[in-house]
Design brief:
Strand order of the largest sheet: 6-7-8-3-9-10
Largest sheet: 6 strands, mixed
Low-confidence stretches: none
Order of helices and strands: EEEHEEHEHHHHHEHEHEEHH
Helix content: 25-40%
Number of helices: 11
Mean pLDDT: 92
Strand content: 15-25%
Number of strands: 10
Radius of gyration: 18 Å
Structural class: alpha/beta
Length: 260
């Protein structure tokens, strides 16, 4: 078995020889092995079509929604094979936030936060639900902005507020890992800065894996970075090292703007 590019002691996520194909013999991800360190931000960078989103979608088995997608290899969360977990258990442990803010338009802010519990048939007493909503919204610095409008639909919120609401929805289950796929790409610079500051604070409680096209964003907030190209994990290491002393020419060319 191939070793990960770098060794991380007691990783929260361990990916071993992962390949994902959307068509026969056409791989979006080809034999990727990597360990993710707990309570840090790991950025995944690379040009469009390099496999970034495919990699994080494999981390909570979203590919299973599409029968034509074939996945090979193993992913372990705290040394447990995620293929052995139920979908509900896995998605409680590994939350996902998408590129465009997508709060449920027919639901109130309150119901958006606890939507995962309702959709999975998990009942809670009202006092417990209230605590979950308040903590989740406080965690994303949204509580003071919406506490007097919890039962209104979220369509009056700005794009940045809606994205923080979506992050609160992911946090409501208190997951081990939060996956974010370009969470600030549709936002203005002020909202982007708020999201970045939020993620830095959240890593005290959660492990964060962030897909980003924004190299400056990765440099600002991530602890470790991966560079992917044509489905291959080219380079992985501490962000400072990867940006200042890349070991692969392709990484250097991407970081200096020669392609991407």
């Amino acid at each position: 078995m191939d070793k990960p590019i770098i060794e991380i002691k007691n990783p929260i996520l361990r990916i071993q020889n992962l390949s994902v194909s959307y068509e026969k013999d056409k791989y979006a991800i080809a034999d990727v092995s990597v360990d993710i360190k707990k309570n840090l931000i790991t950025a995944i960078m690379g040009p469009s079509g390099c496999g970034k989103s495919s990699l994080i979608r494999a981390m909570n088995r979203m590919h299973e929604l599409y029968p034509q997608i074939e996945t090979k290899g193993k992913i372990f969360l705290n040394e447990k094979d995620i293929s052995k977990l139920s979908n509900i258990e896995l998605r409680r442990k590994i939350g996902m936030v998408f590129q465009s803010p997508n709060p449920f338009p027919s639901m109130s802010i309150y119901d958006n936060v606890i939507a995962g519990y309702k959709l999975n048939g998990i009942r809670q007493k009202k006092a417990k639900r209230d605590d979950i909503v308040e903590k989740s919204l406080k965690d994303v610095a949204l509580w003071t902005e919406v506490k007097d409008a919890l039962y209104k639909k979220g369509n009056f919120l700005s794009g940045g507020q809606q994205q923080r609401l979506c992050i609160a929805r992911a946090l409501a289950f208190q997951p081990d890992v939060i996956l974010l796929d370009e969470p600030a790409s549709a936002l203005d610079p002020v909202s982007t800065s708020k999201i970045e500051n939020l993620l830095v604070k959240l890593k005290k409680e959660y492990t964060i894996v962030l897909v980003t096209h924004n190299m400056a964003q990765a440099a600002r907030i991530s602890d470790y970075s991966m560079f992917m190209y044509l489905g291959e994990l080219v380079e992985y290491g501490k962000t400072k090292d990867l940006f200042t002393n890349p070991t692969d020419k392709r990484t250097e060319e991407y970081l200096t703007g020669k392609f991407g």
